[in-house]
Specification:
The strands form three sheets. Strands 5-6-7-3-8-9 form a six-stranded mixed β-sheet, with helices on both faces. It has about 325 residues and is α/β, with parallel strands linked by helices. About 30% of the residues lie in helices and about 25% in strands. The protein has eleven helices and 13 strands. It has helices spanning about 50-55, 80, 100-110, 115-130, 145-155, 175-190, 200-205, 225-230, 250, 280-285, 300-310; strands at about 10-20, 25-35, 40-45, 65-70, 85-90, 160-165, 195, 210-215, 220-225, 235-240, 255-265, 265-270, 290-295.
Length: about 325
């Protein structure tokens, strides 16, 4: 069980892990330990380093410096390491001229699963994922959402000890996302550990034990989900949909405003406990008539990131 001292063996450990690209971008000095049954969320805007980090943890990329060990083994080419990893990356490779079932069968065979056992697992996973009816359809005819579901089938068929997932809810509808959450929660109860790169706040809050906020390749904050959310207890987020651009300088100068940023045509403002959203509209003065829609809701992990950096996470599900 999580937190049990008897299960403190680390399945994965990254020490001072960096990968630097030309131009100086990448990820720098990441430290991460993963225990059985634990879910660690990686959150940050596009270009923050989430995918780069996940690819190194998945043995798909080589670090510039630092080290990673899996199950006590630091050899990323060791087959016994890769067989115990389940991976869904942002750019998944499929055989487009093969059916979905043939693709998944190939993965099961690569992991050494006996045919009869593979057949039973694949049948269950195809039904769970909602692509049972499309199992004999060519993958080139699949939608993005169907391909993402096939990715999940392939990552789960061998029952890995570590799951590394890059935006697993991308292109999934709400029902499918709930099914995914339930499946992953059940896996953690059996000891599977998960590293989840996502800006889907709902998914991150429901699943993650800890969050690493990444910004410009660095971990700027790490903490348990309840502790991070407690920092904004009593706060509220105001979302203003604007019909024209506005300056936020006066808004940010308000004592009650903890953070403010623009994403597309929407202004995100985090207000301190007890603050009245009308204060913001008053400061906008003559531009208030440019507000086409206003919404107030409780703060979430995206608001924590906004408060830390002044940068809003890309919108996903709400």
């Amino acid at each position: 069980m999580k937190g049990d001292t008897a299960s403190k063996a680390e399945l994965l450990k990254a020490a001072d892990l960096s990968r630097v690209y030309r131009g100086g971008k990448g990820v720098f000095g990441i430290n991460l330990a993963l225990e059985p049954g634990e879910v660690v969320g990686l959150m940050g805007p596009n270009g923050s380093g989430k995918t780069t980090l996940l690819r190194m943890l998945a043995t798909a990329s080589t670090p510039t410096s630092g080290s990673v060990s899996w199950f006590g083994n630091s050899n990323s080419r060791e087959p016994s390491v890769r067989r115990r990893l389940g991976v869904v990356l942002d750019q998944a490779a499929h055989f487009e001229q093969m059916t979905g079932y043939q693709n998944a069968w190939f993965f099961a065979h690569q992991f050494g699963i006996p045919p009869e056992l593979a057949r039973g697992r694949l049948d269950e996973l195809f039904r769970w994922s909602g692509i049972w009816e499309a199992r004999d359809q060519l993958v080139r005819e699949y939608s993005l959402g169907m391909k993402r579901r096939l990715n999940l089938v392939e990552a789960l068929v061998h029952r890995p000890q570590i799951l590394l997932l890059d935006e697993p809810s991308l292109a999934l509808d709400y029902r499918a996302e709930l099914d995914l959450i339930e499946r992953l929660q059940l896996l953690t109860l059996t000891g599977t550990a998960i590293v989840l790169a996502t800006n889907d706040v709902h998914l991150a809050e429901r699943l993650s034990d800890r969050i690493l906020f990444l910004h410009q390749g660095n971990v700027i904050r790490e903490g348990r989900v309840p502790d991070l959310l407690t920092e904004l207890a009593g706060s509220k987020e105001v979302q203003l949909q604007m019909s024209s651009p506005v300056s936020l300088d006066k808004v940010r100068a308000l004592p009650s405003v903890q953070a403010a940023n623009v994403e597309g045509d929407t202004v995100h403002i985090v207000l301190a406990r007890g603050a009245n959203p009308a204060e913001v509209l008053a400061v906008l003065n003559g531009t208030a008539d440019l507000v086409s829609n206003m919404r107030v809701r409780r703060p979430n992990l995206g608001d924590v990131f906004l408060k830390l950096t002044g940068v809003a996470l890309p919108a996903t599900h709400d």
